[in-house]
Amino acid sequence: MDVICRIKGDRTIKKCYRVHKLKAIFVLALAIVFTNAVVSYSNTMKLIHNQQWVTSSYEVITQVESIKYTLQDTETAQRNYLITADADDLKTYLAAYQQTNRNIQILSKLTANNHQKQQWIYLLERKITSRLSILQQEISLRQNQGFKAVRQRILSDKDNPSSKEIQQLIHDSLEVEQNLLQQGMQQVQASYQKAIVTFFLAAIVDLVLVALLYDLLWHYIRQLQQMELALRQSENRLRAMIDAEPECIKLIAKDGTLLEINAEGLAMMEVESADVLIGKPIDAVIVPEYRAAFANLHKSICQGNKGTLEFEIVGFKGTRRYMETHAVPLRNESDGTFTHLALMRDITQQKQAEQKIREQGLLLDVSTEGIIVRNIHNQILLWNQGAEHLYGWKVEEVVGKNVL
Questions:
Q1: Looking at residue 202, what is its pLDDT?
Q2: Which of 96, 334, 339, 396 has the most Cβ atoms closer than 10 angstroms to its Cβ?
């Protein structure tokens, strides 16, 4: 018995070890997957941020260059108009003038979140507005006073540094933005390479983890298959042992229906297959006058108590048998309830023999002579009424006592 307990204890320890190992591997897998996800998300967001930075810088450079060239086109068209007074040149000037303003507005929107660039754009816009105002004044002067007046105005303003200041401001801005663009592209390249390296490392770790989980699950499944095979073999051996038992063994559910029965029980019930009985109420074969006593016994067993009972059954072919049951509770580990395990034996011959003895005892009691029956050990087995009258002892006082 101690060996069996040790074996069961070892199996329980191994099972707990396997369960804890699976839990540890599962937690490790979740941690690795979560870490990979966080790292991948961080690298992706950084790559997107750098890419947006590069795109924004590229758009700023594009708009600044557009302002530069559009402003040049504006001045060229204005100079042509001043010389030729051609309406087409005036239209070209007006179109370039409007485009310059649009470019400044677009640039202002692109840098709305950058305070430093907003200050630079504000300064550029003031200088461009001032320059455009001078150009517009020269056009008005040409239209109102003629070419000579405007020529004198241009000659007098030739040292005006506004145009050079604008070009220098644009040139400095382009240089700064190009440097930022270069830095952004380098960071994008670095982020991309880091993301690629991280991806491959995460892929390798995931492959190793998948291989580890596969190996562990494969061994666990093999162990489950072996355990299932051992369990089937154990069940077959147990079934063979139960069927070899010369007495009836029954397993009864709490609701009174039959769950299991052995071969000897089928013979007592006079049926060929257990399917006839499984799931049916067990008291169907009990003689009515014993059903209440059996119900009380069953209720007590399902409450965790032991008990015995003698009762009579009627088989499916009509044979009546006296049965003696020794019942014990069998605990259900899943919910803590009890089922009724009964070991029943046929005592019909014993009952018939007792009946014959009682009948014979009645015949012996008719005799007035003392009649005593003893065994080889001189123990009194029978003591009739004649012996009571002769010796003065009642039958219950002497049966089983030594005759001497």
A1: 80
A2: 96
Listed as own residue / partner, the contacts of 24-30 with beta carbons closer than 8 Å and 24 or more positions apart are: 25/212, 25/213, 25/216, 28/209, 29/209, 29/213
- In this predicted structure, what is the pLDDT of residue 11? 54
3-state SS assignment for residue 308: strand
Q: How far are the Cα atoms of 68, 283, 286, 293, 294 from residue 310, in angstroms, in the given order? A: 115, 14, 11, 9, 9
State the Cα–Cα distance between residues 103 and 109, nearest whole angstrom. 10
Q: Please give the pLDDT value at position 299.
A: 93
Distance separating alpha carbons of residues 332 and 398, to the nearest angstrom: 48
Token pair for residue 4?
């069996």
Dihedral angle computed from the Cα positions of residues 390, 395, 399 and 404, in that order, rounded to the nearest 10 degrees: -20
Residue bearing the bigger pLDDT, 51 or 91: 91
Q: CA torsion 131→136→142→148, rounded to 10°?
A: -10
Band the pLDDT of 3: cuts 50, 70, 90: very low
- Structure tokens belonging to residue 169: 């401001």
The contacts of residue 247 (CB under 8 Å, 6+ apart) are 264, 343, 344, 345, 346
